[in-house]
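Pasting as-is:
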Amino acid sequence: MFSLSKMLKVKIKKISDVKTPSYAHKGDSGMDLYAAENYMLKPMERKLISTGIKIAVPYGYEAQIRPKSGLAIEHGIGHVNSIGTIDSGYRGEIKVPMINFSDTPYSIEKGKKIGQIVFIKVEEALLEEVEELDVTSRNEKGFGSTGMD
């Protein structure tokens, strides 16, 4: 069970009359995000859709904007960049870059789910330039190197 004192506190400002992001079920990792506008998304069209909110992500965290699997499977609707990052210094409106992969128009309706937001702890990295990297069992083997079975 989560203690409210241990939960990440994120400030939110509504800039239009929209639903506040919320968890659908206890234990979910992502809060649903809702459209703040109506729009008919044509096949293969890309469009930034407003959510009507701004947030203040605490330093040391990022907010990831992720697609909804139901929209993808049922309607062919996704996000152009798959997962979007909202950095802790950003204070603008959250907009979702949507794309219609299907062959029929899709009606985005104000108040309907268009994505989800997940808060992730991040670490700053200090890059150290070296002449060689350590050897591993994988080394430079890339895409498909572990096989399909």
